[in-house]
Each structure stands twice: as C-alpha cells, then as structure tokens.
Amino acid sequence: MDELWRGFTQGIGLLVSLDPEVMEVAGRSLLISLSATIIASLVAVPLAAVIHLNSFPGKRAIITVTQALFSVPTVVVGLFVFVLFSSAGPLGGLNLIFTPTLMVIGQALLIAPLILGLAISALSGVDRAYVDTARSLGAGGLQVAGVILREARFAVVAAVIMGFGRAVSEVGLAIMIGGNIKGFTRVITTAISLETSKGELELAIALGIILLIIALVINIGLSRVQQRA
User: Fold this and answer.
1) Mean pLDDT of all residues in the chain?
2) Nearest Cα to 167, choosing from 27, 34, 41?
3) Would you say residue 2 has pLDDT above 70?
4) Domain with 206 in it: what CATH number?
5) Which own/partner contact pairs does 204-207 have at CB distance under 8 Å and 24+ positions apart?
6) Domain total of the chain
7) Burial (CB count within 10 angstroms: exposed 0-12, middle 13-18, buried 19+), residue 173
C-alpha cells in the first residue's frame, strides 16, 4: 500500500512539474488522435449525408454493418492495418509501419464507422419537412445536405467527440502498428501499459491522470453538446 501511495504522490509531482516526458507523450497522443478524428470526420460526415438522403439497394445492410463495427476490437483493426502496411503487405512499400502517420490512419479507420453510424442517426432525427422544403425551393443535393447537417449539427458534433474519445483511449492498435517507440510513437495508453509492466508506477499514474482528465473533458463537452441538441 505504501508503494502505491508513493507512486501516486510522485506521479502527481511529475504532472504538476510538467515533466518533459509526460508532456511529450501526452502531446503526441492528442495530436495523433485529433488528426485521426479530423480525417475520419471529413469522410464519415459527408458520407452519412449521402447515405441518409438517398435510397438504394443494400442501404439497410450498410447501416447495420456500420453499427456492428462500433464495438470492433482495436486489435482486429490493428491486425488489418499491420497486414496491409507490413513489409510483406500490399502497401509495405510506403514504409509507414511503426510511424505516427500509420497510427493516424489506423485510428481513423477505427473510429470512422462510429462517427458514420452516429451521424446517420443524427440526420435521421431531422424533421423530413426541412428536406422537402429545401427541395421544393430548388435546392440541389449539396444544399439539401447542408440544410440537414446544420439542423443536426449538435448531434453530429457529439458523434465526432465520441469518435475522438474512442481514438485517444485505445491501446491495442497503437501498440501493434506504432510499436511504442520512445520519442516517436509512444502515446499515453501504450506508455501506461509499458511503465506498469516495468513497475514504474510514477509515470504510469501521471499519464493515467492525464487520460482521466481528457475523458472528463470529453464527457463534459459531450454533455453540453447533447443539452444544446
């Protein structure tokens, strides 16, 4: 018990003193996850509008598969990306394995279905009258999409926030395709896993507190957005 308490107090000390290693790992983790969230959102949100506004065979199946991917294990996505980008994989020539760039790609693939599915649900909650009115006034497809996205903006933002929360808290994918390389691909979750296995609780606790703070901020932001929605 004394060892745990000592580790906790020393971890707080590292956090308060803005320890360079702690700040480096936290900054890299936020940068990678934010980049992945932006990329996933730029693809998933417009795609959600296209799927919602159009009727085509297999639409229900696409939505069902998308929702099923919400809970896909991160290691499965990590394995898929690793196979694609490893030296023996079809994209191995890009030499992206064990780089922050590939971690961004992997996290984007992980959270894109979540943002897509939640954005489709958000758009489905918009009164059909908005769409019919816009079309009756001669609005084109892009204009109609803009109308419903504006009406559902708070719910869509909530979907993006949830996507970021999933990205920043995952660990399996980051280890598999990032390699947990110090000063290069090490992020909060992989650093916590490594330092705990080494018995270095001080750094693990400091990073754990940062991750908890991020989770708290995400939940507060999500709650406020949902209230406005």
Assistant:
1) 88
2) 34
3) no
4) 1.10.3720.10
5) 204/7, 204/11, 205/7, 205/8, 205/10, 205/11, 205/12, 206/11, 206/12, 206/14, 206/15, 206/19, 206/22, 207/22, 207/25, 207/26
6) 1
7) buried
pLDDT tens for 10-24 read 777 877 788 888 889
Per the structure block, which two tokens stand in for 225?
């957005």
| Distance between CA atoms of residues 223 and 88, nearest Å | 45
- State which amino acid sits at residue 219: N
The predicted model scores a pTM of 0.90
Per DSSP, 159 falls in state: H
Domain that holds residue 25: 2-228
Asked if residue 224 has pLDDT above 90, the reply is: no
Q: Is the pLDDT of residue 107 over 90?
A: yes
